[in-house]
Amino acid sequence: MKNDNKTPTLDRRGFLKASVATGLAASSPFFIQNAFAKGETFRNAPKAGAKTITLGFNVPQTGAYADEGADELRAFKLAVKHLNGEGDGGMMNTFKPSALKGNGVLGKKVAFVTGDTQTKSDAARASAKRMIEKDGVLMISGGSSSGVAIAVQGLCQEMGTMFMAGLTHSNDTTGKDKRRYGFRHFFNAKMTGSALGPVLKEEMGTDRKAYHLTSDYTWGWTQEESIKETTEGLGWKTVKTVKTPVGAGDFSQYITPILNSGADTLILNHYGKDMINSLTQSVQFGLRDKQVNGKNFEIIVPLYSRLMAQGAGKNLQGILGTTNWNWALTDEGSKAFVKSFGKEYGNPPSQAAHTCYVQTLLYANACEVAGTFYPPEVIKALEGFKFDGMGNGKTEYRAEDHQCFKDVLVVRGNEKPTSQFDLLKIVKQVPRSAVEYDAKIFGGDLGPYKV
Amino acid sequence: MDAILIQILNGLDKGGAYALIALGLTLTFGTLGVVNFAHGALFMLGAFCAVLFNKLLTFSTKVKDESITFFDAYKEQPYLELWFGDLGTTIIDYSVPLSILFAIPVMLLIGVIMERGLIKHFYKREHADQILVTFGLAIVIQEIIRHFFGANPIPMPPPEIVSGSAPLGAMLGLNENLVYPWWRLIYLAFSLLIIGAVFAFLKFTTFGMVVRAGMADRETVELLGINVQKRFTIVFGIATVVAGLAGVMYAPILPPDYHMGMDFLVLSFVVVVVGGMGSLGGAVLAGFMLGLLQSFASMNEVKSILPGIDQIIIYLVAVVILLVRPRGLMGREGVFED
Description:
Chain A is of the alpha/beta class and 451 residues long. Chain A has helices at 12-39, 66-83, 121-133, 146-159, 189-204, 218-234, 252-259, 272-284, 306-312, 332-345, 351-370, 375-382, 432-435; strands at residues 52-59, 109-116, 139-142, 162-165, 182-184, 209-215, 237-244, 265-269, 291-292, 295-296, 298-303, 320-323, 386-387, 395-397, 404-405, 408-413, 424-430. Chain B has helices at 2-32, 39-57, 79-84, 86-93, 95-117, 127-149, 168-172, 182-204, 206-216, 218-223, 228-250, 260-275, 280-297, 300-305, 309-324; strands at 60-64, 74-78, 165-166, 180-181. The chains are: A alpha/beta (451), B mainly alpha (338).
């Protein structure tokens, strides 16, 4: 007979059942969260059964950097082609360790949308926002200005979308403005200073008086700071630093005061159109023919690009600077990329194109390694990732600041070009160890993985 | 002393460009009553006449670039060099001054087409409409140029013989280190020549006399049976040519890009307003004056006292002049006043 008045007791079986049930109930949020996290709950997660994913390429299609942007776009298109298993594969054949299979990313074909940054921070942010909200992109990449990169990187952090920066050289991008969702393959002003220092000492000695003309925005400021630190470390004196508005056009009003300043070296912290104009006009004002303090007057352009060299023509011949990559490198990765890009477009790629191509492949590889598009996992796959075969030798994405560390090229405007593209001559390949620095010196905070 | 001389020269050649553009603007405004915001684009088109002419002279055949082994690349060998050897090279070297001959008819044609095709429909419309349509036109011209020539500045070197600097110090018995770019000196002389030619044309020819009379009192001149409109159309063409020539000769100073006109347009409008709307002499005077002011304001000695003054000096002076003389330096009563 059943005793209905029996006080409830917990037997061994009941205890076990209750424990399992409670355990399951208690842990279900984690199960559910992780399952969703890898599949559905993050912004623009591919829907079940989706055959494609979309990437956003946000480059300057108008404005002063439009030609650079056009080359970046060519590289992005080539990268997408290679990721989808079309063409000759380019650097996918030399990149190691690689999880890329040539069948898209995680089995999904790669599609892309493009946007125009106009080299303006507000336009770039608006374009990136449209890509994230309307086009559903999983990752944004592009350049070519540090002001733009920092603005878009900040937006991507807020919206939980990956940002693989294109050409950006300011220390701030992976310094005080670094973000967990942002990664930079390109080198920076600090590395330029470290690479250039020994060459300047060797070629120009330790007794120089430098005058800086500097673009008045984040990139110019940090480059001036880094180069000044380097040259003053060599024993050079800084006569004056003058900020110039971006897109000033006629720089003669900034150049004429240099003539009687007592300086024997001009450092042009200018890029793109500004650099072409300021250099051309400096040469016209006879600065390169001048003798000051018993020395030949010298001009230094710390950041070079082949596209700029094309614009500056023979004025750039003999002038020292640094670059992230050059098409004339003979490692297997560079050769494969130049061959593939040249076959496609009839021109060798610029350094801007190179960094954009590499960034796209690195993002795709990180997704394959993580086994998901979920950004925190992709970020973890990129942090500390060491790779080779991408044109810069052994490279590492430093986890502390998301800055890539690799060799830096010191170059000189080629005085005897052997071809129309042979505009930069490599003076020295400075090893990574010589340009490394402590991530803490620039401050900043990466922020959280989950937003 | 050297520094002062350099700043004077720098101010004068910059002022020369401002004066040439402002002169064209004033001619258009004084004759047709149109505020032409596309005038900066005409300056840019002039610079691109130099670029286009250079491209025509360097029209090339493609020769396989054997030095590129990774892919099929080609380099260009100009036909002129193939056909005429050193003479061809010399002609290409002189492409900028030679392009003046090319720019004059091209710019004249552009000016007449622009006036007949578009501007004439806006004579009786409000100034705001004229500004909108000419500004729109400027953007269209810019984008066309960007489409065909790209966005990067295109270097246009002056002839080799004047690509360096003039030893001004040695020539004037001053410090031997004192040099100034030959081409900028040529530009200054050229701008003075063009300004002189325009004034002489208006002052000493019958055509010029009618135009001046028309600018002063159009109705009376028309009552005399003179077709003022036809002459004003030609004046618009001349203003276009002046802006174009200013652009052609400026190409070696500032590598042309599609946006260069806009940079000059705003300053030139300030020059016109300071000089006095409709006053040709005022435009020239204000052009040189503001060029000089800008040059001196950029000296480190001045900037150390007033940081950033070089960026605002022109606008600051414009405000002061307009407060003291609301019609500008040489403005006449009744112009642009309802």
